[in-house]
Amino acid sequence: MSAREAVAGARRLVVKIGSSSLTTVDGGLDVAKLDALVDAVAARAAGTQVVLVSSGAIAAGLRPLGLPRRPRDLATQQAAAGVGQLHLTRAYAEAFARHGRTVGQVLLTSHDVVRRQPYRNAQRTFERLLGLGVVPVVNENDTVATDEIRFGDNDRLAALVAHVISADALVLLSDVDGVYDADPRSPGATLVREVTGGADLAGVRVGKPSSLGTGGMASKLAAADLASGAGVPVLVASAADATAALAGAGVGTVFAPHGPRLSARRFWLRHMAGTRGRLHLDDGAVRAVVGRRRSLLAAGITGSDGDFESGDVVDLVDPRGEVVARGVVGFHAEELPEITGRSSDDLPPELRREVVHADDLVPVVPTIPEPAPAEVSSP
Ligand SMILES: Nc1ncnc2c1ncn2[C@@H]1O[C@H](COP(=O)(O)OP(=O)(O)O)[C@@H](O)[C@H]1O
Ligand SMILES: N[C@@H](CCC(=O)OP(=O)(O)O)C(=O)O
User: Fold this and answer.
1) Of the listed ranges 56-60, 263-267, 334-338, the one predicted with least confidence
2) Ligand 1, residues at Cβ distance < 6 Å
3) Which residue CA neighbors atom 18 of ligand 1 most closely?
4) Residues 334, 189: one domain?
5) What ipTM, to 2 d.p.?
């Protein structure tokens, strides 16, 4: 099945819409655009469970607050988001009500997913909302998100949500009709229709985001890599083509899944979990853990740092300092110096266990290489 067919046939879908596709250029919600998006989703939604990740809270708060442009400081962004999110949710509730659908608002910070328990709570909430026939409308909880706990951009949030709910596909809708090999505002830029691996992006150059967007095309590429690398097909398309995009027509740029579908636990470990420390591995341990997917034993550790407890997530680093894997550690930080470098036979029975069990361990491998750096500026 091609990735476009996967989007068309998806029973569970995450659709992300960017600020620029929901707001007017001078700030303020463009209800006609929002209604058109909802019509497209509702048309597709018969028999499909859709989670909508919607940006636009900050942009929608500009006009009500009389702000001429997107503020730079976090406090004013948060104030604008507080005002704008209300407008956004009300507009979605009204638009979906025309189709007899109920919406539920889900506002997340990265705190809600980096620890295992809140992650499972979020997963359960989505399951219940979808089971009740509700369309969850998700955004970052901008009013309380500090720099430290921000997802940063909703493209990434959408890719994470796609995995949390085990979506069959992810659709990123923007004000541009796909990924171009250069900033589409520059002459001669050509649409890339399909990405099946790193080679398709090797020559791609990204320019600045639109005036209301946050991450620009670079964050869409990173999100598409995250999702497709974990087995979820991705489509990047124009919000103006939403109906065609959701029907699997040949619009936009499609990213074929290029990795095994990770279990929710392994995906969480690789991409979402906050790490509390580092274990330093010798070369033999790196080969065993990354190459042969074995558990990490004390004998292969040369040192550790961080203030972690048993059950926390730590980075596993090779002798050159590169992070090669992540895993749930089975010891407290203060226990490690005693066992570091010692073979199991040499350890007292109560310490004779894996430092990181193979089931709780994921290799960290870059999938699609970074595209070429930006060289084009705005017009
Ligand atoms: N190589 C590229 N391909 C496509 N779009 C690009 C590229 N480089 C820069 N862009 C710009 O990225 C913008 C989309 O990103 P952004 O403004 O963050 O959108 P959104 O608000 O939908 O998330 C488009 O307006 C487009 O002009
Ligand atoms: N959470 C922010 C949007 C952040 C974001 O990623 O924006 P965009 O690049 O327009 O998808 C908001 O609602 O204003």
Assistant:
1) 263-267
2) 18-21, 55, 174-176, 179-180, 182-185, 204, 206-207, 209-210, 213-217
3) 216
4) no
5) 0.97
